[in-house]
Amino acid sequence: MRRRALALLPLLLVLLLAANGVLRQRLADFVESFPTPRAAVPAGWPAPQYDFSGNPVTASGFELGRRLFHDPRLSLDGSISCASCHQQFAAFAHLDHRVSHGLHGANGTRNAPALFNLAWQPALMWDGAIHNLELQPLAPLANPVEMGETLEGVLVKLRADAGYRRRFEAAFGPGEIDSRRVLLALTQFIGTLRSADSRYDRGELSAREREGLALFRRHCATCHREPLFTDYSYRGNGLDADSADAGRGAISGKAAERGRFKVPSLRNVAVTAPYMHDGRFDTLSQVLRHYASGIRDSAALDPALRGGLALGPEQQQALVAFLETLTDEAFLQDARYAEPLP
Amino acid sequence: MSRLILPILALALGLAGCTRAPELDVEIDISHVVGSEPLRLDDAIYRNAAGEDFSVSRLRYYLSLPRLRRADGSWFAPLHPAESAEAYHLVDEARADSRRLRIAGVPAGEYTGVEFLVGVDEARNHAGAQTGALDPARGMFWTWKSGYIFLVLEGKSPQSPAPGGRFSYHLGGGEPSLARRVYLPFGERPVRVEERLRPTVHLAVDVGALLSAVNPVRIAQLPEAMDPVSARPLADNAAAMFRVDHLHHEPRRRGGG
């Protein structure tokens, strides 16, 4: 069986070279339709939460997802794409924007988080409102103050586009473009944004950065747990005595969880300013000052932070130096994630 | 290779054998009423138990995972492929064809009642992108907090303090879930499923009961219920709005029908 397929290979190649536009495109699609190892798990990491076996990543599916992610036509007036708020150079966070306009209607006051290693997240959003990565894109798409489209509206536009029709068939086989295919393709892209190649990962730390790492393991790692730099729990880190945003409390309905938010990963944190769910801090030094001397007490506050962390200015600087080693330049510049050519 | 051929042949023959047996089914027909009157969207005015006038502009809900109870107390539930949404049915008063559903592949025999889930079970409520009745494009999916809306009732009432005198109830989510299992006994006469007869179960679903059956609500006090906490009283009412109105057995014509 296999040998016969191999025997066909030269024929395929000749065809590929000789073929004119359409045929060549079809053959390229065929070659791209095989699974790629993009969803691989870095050594020493836990198993991901999102199960790619139900949505195997193929080159064509990933490429389609990348195209959708960067395409402003997904918004009602054609002006905003996912990438407008999730910029690659900022590790897919939104540089300089304290908050993006109302993602949740009523709760329209949140900072766009960086996007990477999403397959490991048990739930999405600052409050964990979304349980499954595949459903995440529905939130911005349908939000009137974000992309403002309806799923139906997006499907009409995509179905009318011959390029998209071909790309969807290449990725998922014959059949109409439906919401499931749109969501699966976007998931193949956002679910394989992987960042695991920082200086920290390569163990290239200076003495001072290693000092920062030791402090980090003592004071921060209970919540920002290695290797993902979060334990995905919902906690209060003392930002407010009375949080304006209910956070996890709105989802769980528990009063004590008012003002608790998902512990964010700190990978690439040096490039994802501003910080916290409402983008209140502009620099990492401000964040460290907060942990040392700005902690506010409340029912939501985590016991580990009560009274603040005993960190002098020197130690705070060492911590910042360590956090800067978590930047993954290869990820920020990976051309496979960039806006595709038209 | 040749070791595989026999089992495959056997399987193919087996499958062919199965499909040759006549497919028996039970049809469920749904009529919406308000008390004793038929439901008409938009223009008809009804009165609830609290004495408030109201009209209905939208009524949609999921009836999921149907199963039939045999006289001996055991159950028949149709089997569907794991990925399919065939066991989920979206009833929409605005779409006549949605008020009819079919339980297929029913073994011949006598059945004494039917059970549904009003809503979507936890497993599917938390699963990824789905199709069919569970396609999020059907407008029954909360995008800001993932999960299905199990039931929507919207309308107008002069007593509503909301803009335009509107009221909107969206039931879904909740811990424990607002989805409710509803068992409807067929009564004295069982449903007979056999080659000659095609049974239809007519359900009457009372929107009035949705407002009053267990926990009476006043539109004046509850013009909106869009979260599990405020919608919980309505979920208990939703379970009480279904009843079997009558049964029907008709000769089954050859070749389906």
Features:
heterodimer; A: 342 residues; mainly alpha; Cytochrome Bc1 Complex, Chain D, domain 2; 2 domains; two-stranded antiparallel sheet; 2 strands; B: 257 residues; alpha+beta; ten-stranded mixed sheet; five-stranded mixed sheet; 4 helices; 16% helix; globular
Output the number of helix runs of chain B.
4
Considering DSSP H and I runs of 4 or more, what fraction of the residues of chain A is helical?
A: 25-40%
> Would you tell me the structural class of the helices and strands of chain A?
mainly alpha
Helix content of chain B: 10-25%
Mean pLDDT of chain A: 89
Uncertain runs of chain B are 1-20
Pfam families (chain A): CCP_MauG (PF03150)
Subcellular location (chain A): Periplasm
Protein name (chain A): Cytochrome-c peroxidase
Keywords (chain A): Heme, Iron, Metal-binding, Oxidoreductase, Periplasm, Peroxidase, Signal
How would you portray this structure in words?
- The complex is a heterodimer of chains A (342) and B (257).
- Chain A folds into two domains: 35-195 and 329-337, Cytochrome Bc1 Complex, Chain D, domain 2 (Orthogonal Bundle); 199-326, Cytochrome Bc1 Complex, Chain D, domain 2 (Orthogonal Bundle).
- Chain A is globular.
- Chain A contains 14 helices and two strands, in the order ααααααααααβαβααα.
- In chain A, 38% of the residues lie in helices and 1% in strands.
- Chain A starts with a helix and ends in a 9-residue tail after the last helix.
- Chain A has helices spanning 2-18, 21-32, 59-69, 82-85, 138-142, 151-159, 162-172, 179-190, 199-202, 207-219, 248-252, 284-294, 313-324, 329-333, and strands spanning 234-235, 261-262.
- With 342 residues, chain A is mainly alpha-helical.
- Mean pLDDT of chain A is 89; it is low at 102-107.
- Chain A has a two-stranded antiparallel ribbon.
- In chain A, helix 3 (59-69) packs across helix 8, helix 10 packs across helix 13 and helix 12 (284-294) packs across helix 13 (313-324).
- Chain B is built from four helices and 15 strands.
- Chain B has helices at 2-20, 122-125, 207-212, 228-239, and strands at residues 25-34, 37-38, 46-47, 53-70, 75-76, 88-92, 100-104, 109-118, 149-156, 166-172, 180-185, 191-193, 197-206, 224-225, 242-251.
- The model of chain B is unreliable at 1-20 (pLDDT under 50).
- At the A-B interface, helix 5, helix 6 and helix 8 of A face loops of B.
